Amino acid sequence: MSKSVRVSEEFHEFVAAHKRDDETMEETLRRLIGGPHPKDVAGILSSETAEGMRERLAEKRERDVAGKDELRERFE
Fold first, then answer.
1. Domain ranges in the chain?
2. Which domain of life does this protein belong to (predicted)?
3. Beta-carbon contacts of residue 72 (< 8 Å; ≥ 6 apart)
């Protein structure tokens, strides 16, 4: 099931300008606003799934830091 939300043309253009080629408008909005609040989805994931997600996020952060360090080194 889906719902429609009326937004101004300016806001729609703003979201569309930030939309990535592989995203739907909903995915773009979720990315821009940071998705649902954690307390709104508490208890939906199993402990195992949540732990797996935490691990993947930690790995991504490490890659991001390493990438920034590499970029910084290139400009030194």
1. 7-42, 45-76
2. Archaea
3. none
